[in-house]
Structures are given as structure tokens and as C-alpha cells.
Specification:
By secondary structure, the protein is mostly beta strands. The protein is built from no helices and twelve strands.
Length: 124
């Protein structure tokens, strides 16, 4: 039975946020990736599109999430479904860290508005 312990999770930092990867190819996942996101207060991620559906569940804090120009305030317990190709932005307008759990397909890629492609290591 594959069990990933917190001590085995890999932490990555990008655009002011921290991503703690649990389910990935390196931990035995074959189809899905899952990670905890930590978004400090005052952080705004750059707008980007994703190549695969992403399920974003907020555990703690409060965020402003924008999908294709429509902004929603997201609170603990809320889940955002981000479709492939959707322009996606996350902003933490508060002074405390927000914590999320994200699940997607392995191999997710993101494209920034300037065309830069990113392959987040926590999603592989």
C-alpha cells in the first residue's frame, strides 16, 4: 500500500507560494498528482491557463479566485473546478496564509499570459 509520509513530501516554491507535493509519479502515482498549496497573505499568482482539469479545495484562509475574468471570494470548504484552457488567477488579499489542496492529472502544464510554458515539478 503506497503511503506518502509528510517527511517524504517534496516542497517547491514559485511566485511567492509554496507547493508541497504528495502524490506524483515519483511517489508511485500513475494518473493523478496532489499537493498542498500555501499562499501567503498579499500574494497574487500570475494569470495562467492549465492543460488539464484542476480541482482546487481551500482548507484555510480566504482567496480571490478569477476564472476567465470572473472573480469569486473562496472560503474554507469551497472547491473550485478549473477546466483545461481556463485563464486562472489566485490572490490572497488577507494578511494570513491560505492553505489549499489541489488534485489534477499527472503531466499538468501551465502557460503564462506571455506564452511562457511551465511544467510544475509537483504535478509530474
Amino acid at each position: 500500500m503506497p503511503v506518502v509520509r509528510p517527511s517524504e513530501a517534496v516542497t517547491h516554491e514559485m511566485h511567492g507560494a509554496r507547493f508541497v507535493s504528495y502524490a506524483a509519479a515519483r511517489t508511485g502515482a500513475r494518473e493523478l498528482a496532489a499537493w498542498r498549496g500555501e499562499i501567503p497573505g498579499g500574494t497574487k499568482a500570475p494569470a495562467h491557463t492549465v492543460s488539464h482539469e484542476e480541482i482546487f479545495h481551500l482548507l484555510e484562509g480566504e482567496l480571490l479566485v478569477t476564472l476567465d475574468g470572473r472573480t469569486e471570494r473562496v472560503s474554507p470548504g469551497d472547491t473550485v473546478i478549473v477546466g483545461p484552457g481556463t485563464l486562472f488567477t489566485v490572490e490572497n488579499p488577507t494578511d494570513r496564509t491560505a492553505v489549499s489542496w489541489v488534485t489534477t492529472s499527472l503531466g499538468l502544464q501551465a502557460r503564462l499570459e506571455d506564452g511562457t510554458r511551465l511544467t510544475p515539478p509537483w504535478a509530474c
